[in-house]
Each structure stands twice: as C-alpha cells, then as structure tokens.
Amino acid sequence: MTTRILLADDQENVRIGFRLVLDSQPDMTVVGEAATGTAALDLARHLRPDVVLADIRMPGLDGLELTRRLAGTGPRVVVVTTFDHDDYLTTALRDGACGFLLKRSGPALLIEAVRAAMAGDTLISPQLTVRLLRRLQPLPAAAASVSGVSGLTGRERDVARAVAAGGTNAEIAASLSISAGTVKTHVASIQAKLGVRNRVGIAARMWAAGEAGIPPDPAG
Which candidate among 1, 65, 150, 208 keeps its CA 20 to 30 Å from the CA of 9? Predict the structure, then answer.
C-alpha cells in the first residue's frame, strides 16, 4: 500500500528535495505541493493524502494552525521546520501533530517519520526529545498517582516505559514478545487512561512520574 504525501513548504528547493527523497521509496508518493498554509489546507481536503509534511512559517496559515485544522480529519501531520523552539514543539503535539522534525535531521529520519506516522507512532528529532524531557522533574508518589500512571495495568506500564524510552511499536513488540497489533492496542488504552493525545504525552507522563530514566545532561 502506497503512502500518499502532501508537501507544504514555502521554499521550492525544500519541496524538491523532499520529493526526491520520498518518491525514491517504493511505498511512498508525493501527490501534491503547496507553498502556503491556505493552499495546503485546500489540497489536503481535495487530495486526501495520508501524510502532510508541514513547515511552520508559511504565508497564510502557518504550520501550527494547519495542524490544528487538519487534526482528526484524516491526514497525519508531521511538522518539519528549521526552528527548534520548545513552544513550537509542544503546541504542534498538543494540537495533534504525529511528528516534529528539524530540517537538518536528514533524509533517513524524514522517511522514518512518515512511516512512524502511518504506524501510529510519533517521531521527534532526538535532540528535541531529550531537551524536552530533561525539563520534567519527577513527581512525588502522590502526584504520580494523580497523573494516572498508577491506574495502568502491569503490561500497560511495560509498554508505557518502552514508549518513554523511544521504542517503536515493532521494537516494543519484539522486546515484550507480543504482536505489534497488541502494542498498538495497549498504546491506545494508555493514551485514554492518561488523557493524552499521542506517544509523546505518554512519555512525558512516565518521565514525570519517575517511571523511566533519562541520560545525564553533558553540559552538567
């Protein structure tokens, strides 16, 4: 099954580069391009792509507003930007983005982000994930209970810890000796119990509850 992709970026050279990378994959095809957020919204409604790759700063609607308007309408949105601001990341994920990449991340991560979005995963540029999670302080036990983590079953906690460690559905399935479909079911249940919209929300709850470790900051 071929993944149909819409590119939304005001820089033509970026769209050309993304198209070359994505069209080289046997299971992906770029079905449209837009230089403004308004045009991207119209094309998304007309072409019904599986994934929209959206820049943040575009004429008309910006990528964050585009993400908000497309949330729940069908296409999965992956934000791809040069701006690594934490507020952009948190806003995009809050409003339903299925990934957040820096343009300098390279073609391999771009391809992986599209595949992750189609699999129900959320991929974020690694440097952003680590920086975001370092800001979270473990909660005391009582607060952790309120966060909802204590309401997870044992297996759901195993899956949630693996999600917090950055595992994909396939990797989690292999480590826990269950099917990828079972992992997907657990992830959906965990999101509902924790009241979060995506895997990053799960990770944030697990980090805050002290249910996962994090690498030390090399800067001290």
Answer: 1
Express each pLDDT in 70-86 by its tens digit. 988 889 999 998 887 77
User: What letter does residue 220 receive in the DSSP assignment?
Assistant: -
CA distance 166 to 123: 9
Main-chain dihedrals φ then ψ at residue 71, nearest 5 degrees: -55, 125
Rounded Cα gap, residues 104 and 42, in angstroms:
28
What does the DSSP assignment read for 118-180? Answer: HTT--EE-HHHHHHHHHTPPPPPHHHHHHTTGGGS-HHHHHHHHHHHTT--HHHHHHHHTS-H
Residue 56 pLDDT: 93
At CA 107, angle to CA 91 and CA 11, rounded to 5? 65
Q: What is the pTM of this model?
A: 0.66
| Contact predicate 170/118, CB 8 Å | no
Three-state secondary structure of 7-34: EECCCHHHHHHHHHHHHCCCCEEEEEEE
208 neighbors 139 (Cβ within 8 angstroms): yes
- 163 with 173: CB under 8 angstroms? no
